[in-house]
From TrEMBL:
PANTHER family: NITRATE_NITRITE RESPONSE REGULATOR PROTEIN NARP (PTHR43214:SF41), TWO-COMPONENT RESPONSE REGULATOR (PTHR43214). Residues 150-215 form the HTH luxR-type domain. Residues 11-127 form the Response regulatory domain. InterPro entries: CheY-like_superfamily (IPR011006), NreC/VraR/RcsB-like_REC (IPR058245), Sig_transdc_resp-reg_C-effctor (IPR016032), Sig_transdc_resp-reg_receiver (IPR001789), Tscrpt_reg_LuxR_C (IPR000792), WalR-like (IPR039420). It comes from the Bacteria. GO terms for molecular function: DNA binding. Signal peptide: none annotated. This is WGS project CAIT00000000 data, contig 7. SMART domains: HTH_LUXR (SM00421), REC (SM00448). Pfam families: GerE, Response_reg.
Amino acid sequence: MTQPETTPVINILIIDDHRLFNDGLRAMLADAPDITILGQIYHSRDALSQVRQLRPRVLIIDFNMPEMDGLELTRLLLTQHPQLCILILSMYGESRYIDDFRKAGALGYMLKTSTKDELLTAIREVARGNTYFDPKLADQKQFSNHADDTFLKKYKLSPREVEIIRLIKAGLSTPQIADKVHLSPYTIETHRKNIYAKLGISTVAELVRFAVEVGI
């Protein structure tokens, strides 16, 4: 007799300095059967140690926090823990903010006016490694720019790898890319090797040709 399939549990950390919102978010997600809240963080300075200790799959991060804002924290966390799936919660829907977070490596961006069902959809999508932007954002499509799920699955590329391909195509060196995306040169070289392996290529010229052909 075959055993029924079980839904993988998504382990989450919530990072928001507003205690009322942080606690309310935890309460809202508490009855989702596939979600476990590992903890709540009220100060961005505590994020690194808690991520290291609790090893979450998904981080829900507030856009605007004292000490270190959500964008800076996203960059710092992904430098040390590139496997993290980060979902941003924000009151701001301006395209420049969303694009900044996308470039920093966040997989999702949701408005704080989202419903419970909308937020659960976003959490489940980013936990799978997919990008997900709030459907209420009028300019959502401009941020996909070949980072949509179909494209990524076809070539087995991550949003971060697509970003690095664009920068290589633009002629940036490894140190320049590292500085631009706030990662170490070693991490950029690792991404480059992974990209080459996935695409079956071995030179920058081949990579640039691929980028031109697919429109990255």
